[in-house]
Write a structure and sequence with these properties.
Blueprint lengths: L10 H16 L3 E10 L20 H14 L6 E11 L8 E11 L15 E3 L4 E2 L5 H7 L1 H14 L1
Antiparallel strand pairs: 1-2, 2-3, 3-4, 4-5
Helix pairs in contact: 3-4
Amino acid sequence: MPEVAETGLSFVENAIIKARHASRFTHLPAIADDSGIEVDGLNGAPGIRSARYAGDSASEADNIAKLLLGLSIAETDSRQARFRCEIVFVRHELDASPVICSGTWAGRIAETPRGENGFGYDPIFLVGNGQKSAAELSAEEKNRISHRGQALAQLVERLKE
């Protein structure tokens, strides 16, 4: 399936765009998500640009480096952050009332990356009491508490209704 441009102005809009695109391409119901990280000290950035924060072809390491640099020169010392996820289910590409579920995972940004698991900003996202980064959690631990795990659990319950 060809990729679709994420032209929405919010996580929800991008998730709807992706779900409708998948349904249009497959002629089946579809589930899609959009997610990212919002950092208070960066006025909510990177937000919907999380995957492309350091540029369209930037690596995960490039995105992390830009975020950490931004915090180092920010006028605030706020490292509070949250991962956000919006998951959307559409019955067909023209579904006027998609099922939308949300998850938020609060934490703070570490000064340096640590851990080998996960992807994206996980190595700098400190969870709970700040003793571990998301990249230091097992897949099972992360799925139980993450923004994506929360949104997916909501979707499962909504689809049972």
